[in-house]
Request: fold
Amino acid sequence: MKRLIETIVKPLVDHPDQVRVETEEQEGRLVCRLSVHPDDMGKVIGKQGRVASAIRTVVNSASAAGRKRVRVDIMD
Reply:
């Protein structure tokens, strides 16, 4: 999941070298914490959260094969 999120997010931002994804197991679910440069937050979230929602949709679809729930948190 980490590589998938990085592959989606890096082309969207101006500072791809500062894209970080940390994963952690919590209560039977995989939690992915995405952090980007503060200037790139708007690009990752998008208008009315549409880009963030699309990222979460793709990640959840990819995780369906593994039968494990995934949550993506976006942080600065």
